[in-house]
Design brief:
The complex is a heterodimer of chains A (417) and B (107).
Chain A lengths: L7 H9 L17 E7 L3 H14 L4 E4 L23 H21 L10 E5 L2 H17 L4 E3 L1 H7 L14 E5 L7 H14 L3 E3 L4 E7 L2 E7 L2 E10 L5 H8 L5 E11 L9 E4 L4 E5 L5 E11 L7 H14 L8 E12 L5 E4 L5 E5 L9 H14 L31
Parallel strand pairs in A: 1-2, 1-9, 2-6, 3-11, 9-16
Antiparallel strand pairs in A: 3-5, 4-5, 7-8, 8-9, 10-13, 10-14, 11-12, 12-13, 15-16
Helix pairs in contact in A: 2-6, 2-9, 3-9
Chain B lengths: L2 E4 L4 E4 L4 E5 L11 H8 L8 E7 L7 E7 L5 E6 L7 H10 L8
Antiparallel strand pairs in B: 1-2, 3-4, 4-5, 5-6
Classes of the chains: A alpha/beta (417), B alpha+beta (107).
The structure holds flavin-adenine dinucleotide and zinc ion.
């Protein structure tokens, strides 16, 4: 039975009957013996893949298998910055596709994801960054991505709480993407989960994949803590755990897992209505709708699966942000957490076929894949449905390192988020 | 905070005193190697959930490189040892085996 739609009438109806009529947002079925497609990982990217498999390709005999709770990985741990002002053409294409899908996602999935295109500003605080961002603005103009290089006066106008003439790194300008912004991360996962469930797909939580079964060089199925599940095609979409799953499938991926942290302050009155990233000093900040300042910084330097991070990174991040926003110096921090991010050498993702036939990977989003969820799912669904990548995914193969075709965003941005 | 003892100067260092250098015991591909060997050498690092062997540099101290054996899940340190070796020494392997009986071994 299809789910009831959320609407203003539904809210009014439920208000009149003491909210007794809301149904569960998605079903929690037991796994079937066999599916056409099994996706491992119910984060944003896995769920979006399932969603577009159903929407664009009519493949609905799909299970999404999650070892914890859906959205409990990096999707529920990130600082929700959405932008598409990347330097390289393949990046701009997939991130811009994604940003534009975010604009209509609440309507598409009938779930309010609170997309807020409030604008993203990346500060230039060295001459190198000034030239780099001007170059990116020109590249974006050619790619059809609306960005603009702005001077310090405009920076101050857009975000009055910035100290533009700080002692170490005065603000020299910024790359401004007015259509960038934020969205509610949990809602992105929940919205896709609900829409997938509505299409008849099974989202199976608390079910860990422990082995990948192979027959004659092809995927046969997965072993899980809820038993054996057969599948014709398998998608591995597990972010920080990609290396672990790849090992189960018998190959190695060009990425390493490290911790990335974020923290939020106590809620305060509205004081900034844009997202600001300061890459040179390594910190970024925005204000949530609840009033908390949402803060992130750099990733740790060594392999880690603990979902905590090193304390000194918090100190560095906070120090950088106090320099940039002196008014936050007395703010109390409420919560701090970490996520395990999968870092590739060129800081670009992998959406690819693998040495194992009918097994596909979507990973390597590292510190910046929340913004990419809808577009990544779109591209991964196309790859899995057709067996070959479409135009969005074509450049992001796992063999690009071996072939020297890097999509080098690490030099272009060199920062987390 | 992660604390490793530098085997060169025998000082217990906080991670802020150290610089991480990635996977240890990577063997360099020579000029005649094929694409596979170069890919392996340049890009395909181990990324284990569990026992890991790494290079670290005592950057804010004696400046020397050394190796450490560590668990990436618990951050437990099994030991540190000289960088002048192609494989982990036996006492380190024993220390790991004592703490992780299921460990598959260094390969
Ligand atoms: C602190 C922090 C801040 C960030 N800030 C930003 C930002 O501002 N903007 C941005 O664009 N991106 C940001 N990111 C990156 C972004 O969060 C990730 O790129 C994105 O969420 C990855 O989504 P995913 O669906 O691939 O992975 P996840 O959401 O991590 O989902 C993977 C899922 O796989 C499951 N799984 C793993 N192993 C198994 C198994 N064996 N069996 C079954 N399930 C398994 C996990 O439990 C997990 O739920 C940030 C990340 C962090 C950690
Ligand atoms: Zn030393």
């Amino acid at each position: 039975m299809p789910l009831k739609r959320y609407s203003v009438f539904a809210v009014a109806r439920e208000a009149l009957r003491f909210h007794t009529g809301w149904e569960r947002a998605w079903r929690s079925p037991e796994p079937k013996k066999k599916y056409d497609v099994v996706i491992v990982g119910a984060g944003g990217h896995g769920l979006a893949t399932a969603y577009w498999l159903g929407k664009n390709h009519g493949i609905r005999n799909v299970a999404v298998i999650e070892k914890g709770w859906l959205g409990g990985g990096n999707t529920g741990r990130n600082t929700t910055i959405i932008r598409s002002n990347y330097l390289q053409d393949p990046s701009a294409a997939i991130y811009e596709k994604s940003r534009s899908l975010y604009e209509t996602m609440s309507q598409d999935v009938n779930y309010n994801i609170m997309f807020s295109p409030r604008g993203v500003m990346m500060l230039a605080q060295t001459q190198h960054e000034v030239r780099g961002f001007q170059r990116t603005a020109h590249a974006n103009a050619l790619q059809g991505v609306a960005t603009e290089y702005v001077g310090p006066d405009r920076v101050k106008e857009l975000c009055p709480i910035i100290n533009i003439d700080g002692p170490r790194y005065p603000v020299l300008g910024a790359l401004w993407q007015a259509r960038g912004g934020t969205a509610r991360h949990d809602a992105v996962a929940w919205g896709y989960a609900r829409a997938c469930s509505d299409m008849g797909m099974d989202i199976i939580q608390q079910c860990e994949v422990t082995a990948i079964r192979r027959e004659n060089g092809k995927v046969a199925g997965v072993s899980t803590t809820k038993g054996e599940i057969d599948c014709a095609k398998l998608g591995i979409v597990v972010a920080g755990h990609s290396g672990v799953l790849a090992e189960m499938a018998g190959f190695r991926l060009p990425l390493e897992s490290v911790a990335l942290q974020a923290l939020v302050s106590e809620p305060i009155k509205p004081c900034m209505d844009v997202v600001v990233m300061a890459n040179t000093v390594h910190g970024y900040m925005s204000q949530s709708d609840k009033g908390e300042m949402v803060i992130g910084g750099g990733a740790d330097g060594y392999n880690n699966y603990t979902q905590r991070g090193s304390f000194h990174h918090i100190e560095e991040t906070v120090r950088a942000l106090i320099e940039t926003f002196p008014m936050i110096s007395r703010l109390k921090m409420l919560r701090q957490w970490g996520g395990i991010v999968d870092m590739t050498g060129d800081r670009s993702p992998i959406i690819s076929k693998t040495p194992l036939e009918n097994c596909f990977v979507n990973c390597g989003w590292g510190t910046g894949g929340f913004k990419a969820i809808p577009g990544s799912g779109w591209a991964m669904a196309e790859l899995m449905a057709q067996g070959e990548p479409g135009p969005l995914a074509a450049a992001f193969t796992m063999n690009r390192f071996r072939e020297g075709r890097f999509i080098d965003e690490s030099v272009a941005a060199g920062v987390a988020h | 905070m992660l604390t490793l003892t530098c085997p060169c100067c025998n000082i217990a260092c906080d991670e802020t005193e150290l610089h991480p250098g990635g996977q240890a015991h990577v063997s360099r591909a020579g000029p005649d190697s094929g694409d596979d060997a170069f890919e392996q050498y340049l890009f395909l690092r181990k990324n284990p959930r569990g026992v890991h062997f790494e290079r670290w540099r005592h950057a804010m101290g004696c400046g020397k490189w050394f190796h450490a054996a560590r668990c990436t899940v618990t951050l437990e340190v099994f030991g540190t040892y000289s960088a002048q070796t192609l494989e982990p020494p036996q006492d380190i392997l024993d220390a790991i085996a004592a703490r992780r009986p299921d460990w598959q071994g260094f390969a």
